[in-house]
Amino acid sequence: MQYCQSTRDHARGPAIPIVRDLGVGALILLAATTLLWSWVGASFRVPLLAMITYLIMAGLVVASAPSHWRRLGWANRITLWRGALIALLAGTLADPDLLARDAVPLAALALLVLLLDGVDGWVARRTSTQSDFGARFDMELDAFLILLLCLALLLLDKAGPWVLAIGAMRYAFVIAGRKLSWLTATLPQSRRRKIVCVWQVAALMIALLPVAGATTTNWLAGSALAGLIWSFGVDIRWLYRHAPARRVEDCRASSHS
User: Fold this and answer.
1) Are 91 and 33 a contacting pair, CB within 8 Å?
2) How many Å separate Cα 195 from the centre of its chain?
3) Contacts of 103 (CB under 8 A, 6+ apart)
4) Which of 12, 214, 223, 243 is a Cys-bridge partner for 182, taking CB atoms 3.0 to 4.6 Å apart?
């Protein structure tokens, strides 16, 4: 999903600074963590870690957003609110007992995050507000959510350390791109990529539920990992075949280092 600052937004009323949008997201997170703390007796570490996660996220948004933007636009705001909920899920990792005791409502929260992933894209398309920043914002949140779900499975002893390969693969790809510049070329849009992402989140959410035993969890997480390896393989093959000049530059740079 891609979304951006609409040029029409600049012409409508007074500009709202991005910082104010981030503040609204912080208030949403504060309200959600307060409810979680009071309803299920979560540890104080949950809201603390959630807020730290959100502040890091907000800092990255400020650093990455185009300098001329003064507001995020509605599609990006929805993505930001989704990020606040993901930060809340990150906070629950600080309380493994909470994860084990309330796996169903937390899985429902992850489902809400997944549903909002479709809403922000729909809003972006309806308002013709696509951008590289919006696409990257959305993609990084998806990757972070998947990593969090993998960590939750590991903390609950429902899967071995191998499950972290699902959440770490995106970051390994980014790190590899620092050495091999042809990996950083722009990929064509792909429904296959989105379907694989949705299945990863869905499979990991189901695996978190108490009804999912060890065998079911391994099959679900294993299928998510297999689909991810296949999808990355397709993309890497496409990048390799369409960027011969950049591969030559990488080889020359490696030979001189």
Assistant:
1) yes
2) 15
3) 156, 208, 209, 210
4) 243
